[in-house]
DNA sequence: GGCATTATATAAGTATTTTTCAAAGATGGC
DNA sequence: GCCATCTTTGAAAAATACTTATATAATGCC
């Protein structure tokens, strides 16, 4: 799904398997990738305190060809931007810097999610949702607005959809589902007890349970389909909560997938919807 | 705010000013940029049917240094990618393609918004919010969940915040605001009549009205501060509504800015919050 | 048409990268 | 613990790629 590999991450991954000198090379690159893409092999070798052939071998082992091609790969990887800058917001950042960091972090999270999400699971989820007699979205806390947003999207598709953000209501609704219903459980950690219970109940009642959650979490055990979104390490309280962005985008993709499955007769329905809100609006100003 | 120039566009722009041979070079590059970044100067010269020094001169005139550095720039420009692929979802797209397009569209929207948003306005908005006696978020339709998400974020910061998604309630609340209160009005089009009215009322009552909306729309006339987010052309009904993503990210940035202004004593508060939800969760599984 | 200017290429020179190869170091078996 | 073997590393040489200098051709201007 990814356009091209992320060399920086690849280096980080292989760091442990490298020999002493090659690790020096890796560290020198990671310490300052921006400089690296404009350096000659000699400069990098000097910076890493190793010989030039070592750098060359490092490149070959990593991407299969020499240093110039490696620089090109690194440049690309840098441009799409893995966190080569520190994206953690620091207490003394100016508001402009904060904004930049948060936007960049959001984009990175989207890219990462894209790499991890398996296409076939999305396909299956779309199939289930498109055929569901009824769709229910459950979310708690920060996932509450996500569930409501999902409701809004599917509602626009004229589908029988509800969103619940109350544990008790969720529990009752889950118990009342039937085979042919789809329940989408949204949880960042996948470890929120009441929601796990609710998923189990829905599953037992026969509903298809789609979990949008942390892969490997307990919640996944009660899901028919798991759409994995990794829990980013929450090392810093300033860390922006941009995971919600990823959820919303994924749900956008699901909704669009369902729309496409539903076919062209729904376009008419959408047009009608748009028309219906027109008269609450002032006309567009001609520039 | 943009990171680096787009070489490809630059080449296209200069195409007319170039000499015959250099134009051959430019055309050879544009014809197949992917191959170019893995070619030597000799190969490119052969492909363009010119001599090597011509290629070199071309590079110098364009970026001020030689061919290797040019390749690096080209690689970056290729990676961030002017939209080479069509991001409009087509009716016969596979679900995987749909997902990719929607994620890419979301990232593009974030980038665009970042370029347009003026730093100083964000700073001012942060100042207003940090000092507000009370913060109210208003949104309708798709902006409803955005307002609720905003509420959730500021609530975590222990700020006196509410979110209303009902026109009447918004209107009443707006009338009841005072100087020192902040009202954040979220509207995609900026042309939704009731919301414009509400903004006017709040302004008259003395509140600071922050509009997160389409610049140049009627709503902006009743705002103290406008955070512009452009209305993307809605040419296609399949177009994902990823503008919400931009709203949420912007609000993330505002909330983080406020958090930083509030200083370190709030970290303790946040820790307490996190602790308070711990006991509703299963423990993290050790891998 | 001849001169000046610019554009391009050939060839020479320089820098960079890659390969080769041998030495040093690490690893494992006995 | 020592030797054989394999791996890692760097020095030097070879190959490649890039740049500069210079010459020639093309173009435009008077």
Walk me through what this model shows.
Chains A, B: It holds the Pfam family SIS. Chains A, B: This is Transcriptional regulator. Chains A, B: InterPro entries: Homeodomain-like_sf, HTH_RpiR, RpiR-like, RpiR-like_SIS, SIS_dom, SIS_dom_sf, WH-like_DNA-bd_sf. Chain A has a 5-stranded parallel β-sheet, sandwiched between helices. The first copy, chain A, is elongated and about 70 Å long. Chain A has 2 domains: about 5-80, Arc Repressor Mutant, subunit A; about 105-280, Rossmann fold. Chain A has about 290 residues and is α/β, with parallel strands linked by helices. The longest helix of chain A has 22 residues, at about 95-115. Chain A has helices at about 5-15, 20-30, 35, 40-50, 50-65, 65-80, 95-115, 120-130, 145-155, 165-175, 195-205, 245-260, 265-280, and strands at about 135-140, 160-165, 180-185, 210-215, 225-230. Chain A binds a DNA duplex (30 and 30 nucleotides) through helix 2 and helix 5.
Tell me the number of structural domains of chain A: 2
Oligomeric composition of the shown chains = homodimer
Strand content of chain A: 5-15%
CATH-level-2 architecture of the largest domain in chain A: 3-Layer(aba) Sandwich
Query: Averaged pLDDT of chain A, please?
Result: 84
Q: Please provide the count of β strands of chain A.
A: 5
């Amino acid at each position: 799904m990814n356009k091209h590999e992320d060399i920086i991450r690849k280096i980080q991954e292989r760091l442990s398997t490298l020999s002493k000198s090659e690790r020096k090379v890796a560290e020198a690159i990671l310490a300052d990738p921006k400089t690296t893409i404009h350096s000659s092999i000699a400069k990098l070798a000097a910076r890493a305190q190793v010989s030039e052939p070592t750098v060359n071998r490092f490149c070959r082992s990593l991407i299969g060809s020499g240093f110039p091609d490696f620089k090109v790969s690194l440049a690309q990887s840098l441009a799409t931007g893995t966190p080569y800058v520190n994206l953690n917001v620091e207490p003394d950042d100016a508001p402009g810097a904060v904004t930049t960091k948060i936007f960049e972090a959001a984009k990175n999270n989207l890219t990462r999610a894209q790499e991890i999400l398996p296409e076939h699971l999305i396909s299956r989820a779309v199939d289930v949702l498109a055929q569901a007699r009824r769709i229910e979205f459950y979310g708690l806390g920060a996932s509450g607005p996500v569930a409501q947003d999902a409701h809004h999207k599917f509602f626009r598709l004229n589908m029988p959809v509800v969103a619940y953000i109350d544990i008790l209501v969720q529990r009752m609704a889950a118990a009342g589902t039937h085979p042919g219903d789809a329940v989408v459980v949204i949880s960042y950690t996948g470890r929120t007890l009441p929601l796990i219970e609710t998923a189990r109940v829905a599953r037992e009642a026969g509903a298809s349970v789609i979990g949008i959650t942390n892969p490997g979490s307990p919640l996944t055990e009660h899901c028919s389909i798991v759409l994995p979104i990794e829990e980013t390490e929450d090392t810093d309280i300033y860390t922006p909560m941009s995971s919600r962005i990823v959820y919303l985008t994924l749900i956008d993709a699901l909704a669009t997938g369902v729309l496409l499955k539903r076919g062209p007769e729904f376009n008419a329905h959408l047009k009608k919807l748009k028309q219906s809100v027109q008269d609450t609006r002032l006309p567009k100003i001609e520039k």
